[in-house]
Amino acid sequence: MTRHIRQSGTHNLRRPRAGEPVVEKHRYNSFYATDLAMILRGLGGETVVPTGMTSECCVLGTAAGASERGFRSPVIAAAASARPDRRR
Fold first, then answer.
1. Does 22 reside within a domain?
2. Is 61 a domain residue?
3. Which residue in 58, 79, 80, 83 is a FRET match for 73, CA 20 to 30 A apart?
4. What is the tally of structural domains in the chain?
């Protein structure tokens, strides 16, 4: 979650629940300079399914970051989108 999203009027389904960890990302890869891998391992996580609006950027960056840290990370086309000029 980025600071911009956290401060905007997000839909209630996207807001963290009480006590739920919030990871503020700093780059395209959500694992870069965050505690995300440590949090997921502490929860017993083995698979990361990144979703989002920019497949060519944040989704693939996070998938690669997850894989580099030993998580399974499938990219599901229906869970991500890309700019029309970057779709294949």
1. no
2. yes
3. 83
4. 1
